[in-house]
Amino acid sequence: MGTPNRAKKTVPTGILEIKLSSIHGFGVFALKKIQKGVRMGPYEGNVTKVETTQGYAWKLKYSQLIDASDESNSNYLRYVNCAKNIAQQNVIAFQYRGQLYYRTCRDILEGEELLVYYGTSFAKNLGM
Ligand SMILES: C[S@@+](CC[C@H](N)C(=O)[O-])C[C@H]1O[C@@H](n2cnc3c(N)ncnc32)[C@H](O)[C@@H]1O
Question: Which residues form the SET domain (predicted)?
Answer without folding.
Answer: 14-119
